[in-house]
Amino acid sequence: MCTGKCARFVGLSLIPLSLICIVANALLLVPNGKTSWTKMDLISKHVWYMAGFIGGGLMVLCPGIAAVRAGGKGCCGAGCCGNRCRMLRSVFCSAFGMLGAIYCVSVSGVGLQNGPKCLKDGTWDYHFKDTSGSYLLNRTQWSLCEQPPNVVCWNVTLFSLLLAASCLELLLCGVQLVNATIGVLCGDCRKKGTPQ
After folding, report:
1. TM segments (predicted)?
2. How many other CB atoms are there within 10 angstroms of residue 146's CB atom?
């Protein structure tokens, strides 16, 4: 497969994944779909780190767009020089995207392990923090959180989605990093003047 076609495929895969991360992070800010709980001291600090919005979202959207551009005609022109220029830009953007995806994986993993901040026995705290993530397999513990309602299911679902999406982003950014490096060193199999 041409490095240009591969770059386009990776870019078109990264863009929706980054949008999924942004939406998932936005939903984490409104537990159970209600804005009445959106206060700094009532929502988990892992949500406020904005790993889905910044790391898995904006930091991956950049390499997604760069990869799509590397796979087609851009401002650098057509031919070997233009293709290599866009591929070089994609190398740096992919490394930037990998950092964002790693940030999102890390925060989402810790957010899943510690569980949500919720009200139990009159105290707002991370009541599942000492379980080392074992609460994930014991759904009967989820009802121990009195407020916000269904917050454990909400957090587990969305942090799991963030974790899965950012793992895919990390893989795809790694593939594009290698692909773009090959594109810079060896050029693209497309010929000058070939329509994209």
Report:
1. 7-28, 48-70, 91-112, 158-186
2. 12
Long-range contacts of 49-53 (CB under 8 A, 24+ apart): 49/107, 50/25, 51/25, 51/103, 51/104, 51/106, 51/107, 51/108, 51/111, 51/162, 51/166, 52/21, 52/22, 52/24, 52/25, 52/28, 52/104, 52/108, 52/162, 52/166, 53/21, 53/22, 53/25, 53/26
Q: Helices (H) and strands (E) in the chain — how many of each?
A: 5, 2
The per-residue pLDDT for range 68-108, each reduced to its tens digit, is 888 775 444 444 455 778 888 888 999 999 999 999 999 99
pTM, 2 dp: 0.85
Q: What is residue 120's three-state secondary structure?
A: strand
Q: How far apart are the first and last CA of the chain?
A: 15
176: tokens are: 């594009």
53 pLDDT more than 80: yes
Rounded Cα distance between 2 and 158, Å, is: 36
